[in-house]
């Protein structure tokens, strides 16, 4: 045991009337919501990188956090793991996620880095067995080191491409060994800064080639988890190839990979792409591509990805509404890809940020379930499209109906009358639940 979270109790559900800061007011893991335990709906996960690897820096200032595990070497990596799993026990969330670089030090060679990852993977297995915490997904950091400054899979240097492949293999092996339920690819620098030195077609082919190798390796080793791509439009690259749900789906269809890969969608990234979170979720669900989510929020006064903990129940409710509509998560879950503000220095801040976020998600889930059970929103949506239930309207959508047929129909005297979209009334309806 460490003393980093000294005197912080395990968090338990006490109900909405509790004034205990160290208690859940809305997140009751065993509460039945829409036919399932709340824990099984939400499938909460803690992000190892933001919670334990991030040092509090921003583009204009360096480290603000002082953590005893900061530094190089396997001893520090094991201490970091000890503290992490103590936090997992305090929160009681079922899952965590990690990048390879979050959990092991960089070695002098690739072989040494791989050995470090293998060693910490074995250490994790013991911790997971002791605490019951599971791995939602693993991934590889192929964007921090200078070797990846021009991309990983899309790099103009074939040696970097090969290095990326070896890095992916090591991270997938670790994820598989730990029983991970998904593996995520976030192309942090799979994009470009200027078209003056970029061959878009070549880089797309390289990206697809690497993704195909990942899929092939998954099947070869018997990894039963889901391969996920995480969309992000920009930052750090000026333009990233995994821009949003629609862009990635088009890419996967182009290379015949749409049946092998799903999406891990983040709220903050959706906002950067000019979309709402629920838009990206709804589109992915309609395409059969929604796998998992990163739950956070952006500061709407800032133009970058601020990765703040969620605190907006109406936004969260609309997100879970789309997830519940598609039947809920299977291998996916709710990963808090969120970090403290750089002035929030105390261990208590890290715990309470997650407590508040879990409560917000619980409230949003319950509101979404109530909306879906009531059915009024869906009834009003169906009413708007009721005209398409007529036989003539159904014929409009067939190839047998031509433009000439549509012309003749309108010339017969049909004159459409505009109908209200009733947006404000629907917004009022949503507010009944949140």
UniProtKB/TrEMBL annotation:
<feature type="binding site">
    <location>
        <position position="337"/>
    </location>
    <ligand>
        <name>Mg(2+) 1</name>
    </ligand>
</feature>
<feature type="active site">
    <location>
        <position position="99"/>
    </location>
</feature>
<feature type="binding site">
    <location>
        <position position="305"/>
    </location>
    <ligand>
        <name>Mg(2+) 2</name>
    </ligand>
</feature>
<dbReference type="InterPro" id="IPR001998">
    <property type="entry name" value="Xylose_isomerase"/>
</dbReference>
<feature type="binding site">
    <location>
        <position position="266"/>
    </location>
    <ligand>
        <name>Mg(2+) 2</name>
    </ligand>
</feature>
<comment type="subunit">
    <text>Homotetramer.</text>
</comment>
<keyword id="KW-0460">Magnesium</keyword>
<keyword id="KW-0859">Xylose metabolism</keyword>
<dbReference type="GO" id="GO:0009045">
    <property type="term" value="F:xylose isomerase activity"/>
</dbReference>
<feature type="binding site">
    <location>
        <position position="230"/>
    </location>
    <ligand>
        <name>Mg(2+) 1</name>
    </ligand>
</feature>
<keyword id="KW-0479">Metal-binding</keyword>
<dbReference type="GO" id="GO:0000287">
    <property type="term" value="F:magnesium ion binding"/>
</dbReference>
<feature type="active site">
    <location>
        <position position="102"/>
    </location>
</feature>
<feature type="binding site">
    <location>
        <position position="307"/>
    </location>
    <ligand>
        <name>Mg(2+) 2</name>
    </ligand>
</feature>
<dbReference type="InterPro" id="IPR036237">
    <property type="entry name" value="Xyl_isomerase-like_sf"/>
</dbReference>
<dbReference type="GO" id="GO:0042732">
    <property type="term" value="P:D-xylose metabolic process"/>
</dbReference>
<feature type="binding site">
    <location>
        <position position="266"/>
    </location>
    <ligand>
        <name>Mg(2+) 1</name>
    </ligand>
</feature>
<feature type="binding site">
    <location>
        <position position="294"/>
    </location>
    <ligand>
        <name>Mg(2+) 1</name>
    </ligand>
</feature>
<dbReference type="GO" id="GO:0005737">
    <property type="term" value="C:cytoplasm"/>
</dbReference>
<keyword id="KW-0413">Isomerase</keyword>
<comment type="similarity">
    <text>Belongs to the xylose isomerase family.</text>
</comment>
<feature type="binding site">
    <location>
        <position position="269"/>
    </location>
    <ligand>
        <name>Mg(2+) 2</name>
    </ligand>
</feature>
<keyword id="KW-0119">Carbohydrate metabolism</keyword>
<dbReference type="InterPro" id="IPR013452">
    <property type="entry name" value="Xylose_isom_bac"/>
</dbReference>
<protein>
    <recommendedName>
        <fullName>Xylose isomerase</fullName>
        <ecNumber>5.3.1.5</ecNumber>
    </recommendedName>
</protein>
<keyword id="KW-0963">Cytoplasm</keyword>
């Amino acid at each position: 045991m460490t003393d980093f979270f000294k005197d912080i109790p395990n968090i338990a559900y006490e109900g909405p009337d509790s004034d205990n800061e160290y208690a859940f007011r809305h997140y009751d893991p065993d509460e039945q919501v829409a036919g399932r335990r709340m824990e099984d709906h939400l499938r909460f996960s803690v992000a190892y990188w933001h919670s334990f690897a991030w040092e509090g820096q921003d583009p204009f200032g360096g480290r603000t956090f002082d953590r005893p595990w900061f530094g190089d070497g396997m001893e520090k990596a094991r201490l970091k793991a000890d503290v992490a799993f103590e936090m997992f026990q305090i929160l009681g969330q079922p899952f965590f996620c990690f990048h390879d670089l979050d959990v092991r030090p960089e070695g002098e060679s690739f072989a040494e880095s791989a050995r470090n990852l293998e060693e910490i993977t074995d250490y994790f297995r013991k911790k997971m067995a002791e605490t019951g915490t599971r791995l939602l997904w693993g991934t590889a950091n192929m964007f921090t080191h200078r070797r990846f400054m021009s991309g990983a899979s899309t790099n103009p240097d074939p040696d970097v491409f090969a290095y990326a492949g070896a890095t992916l293999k090591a991270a997938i092996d670790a994820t598989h060994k730990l029983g991970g339920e998904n593996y995520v690819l976030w192309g942090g620098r799979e994009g470009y800064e200027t078209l003056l030195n970029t061959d878009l077609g070549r880089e797309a082919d390289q990206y697809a080639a690497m993704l195909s190798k990942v899929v092939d390796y998954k099947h070869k080793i018997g990894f039963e988890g889901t391969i996920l791509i995480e969309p992000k439009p920009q930052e750090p690259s000026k333009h990233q190839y995994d821009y949003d749900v629609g862009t990635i789906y088009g890419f996967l269809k182009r290379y015949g990979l749409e049946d092998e890969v799903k999406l891990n969608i983040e709220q903050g990234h959706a906002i950067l792409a000019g979309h709402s979170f629920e838009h990206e979720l709804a589109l992915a669900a309609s395409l059969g591509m929604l796998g998992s989510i990163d739950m956070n929020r952006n500061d709407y006064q800032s133009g970058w990805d601020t990765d703040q903990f969620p605190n907006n129940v109406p936004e969260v409710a609309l997100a879970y509404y789309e997830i519940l509509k598609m039947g809920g998560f299977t291998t996916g879950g709710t990963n808090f890809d969120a970090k403290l503000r750089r002035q929030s220095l105390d261990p208590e801040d890290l715990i309470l940020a997650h407590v508040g976020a879990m409560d917000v998600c619980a409230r949003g889930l319950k509101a979404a379930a109530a909306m879906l059970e009531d059915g009024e929103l869906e009834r009003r949506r169906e009413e708007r499209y009721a005209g398409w239930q007529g036989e003539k309207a159904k014929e409009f959508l067939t190839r047998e109906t031509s433009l000439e047929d549509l012309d003749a129909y309108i010339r017969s005297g049909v004159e459409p009358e505009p109908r209200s979209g009733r947006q404000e009334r629907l917004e009022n309806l949503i507010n009944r639940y949140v």
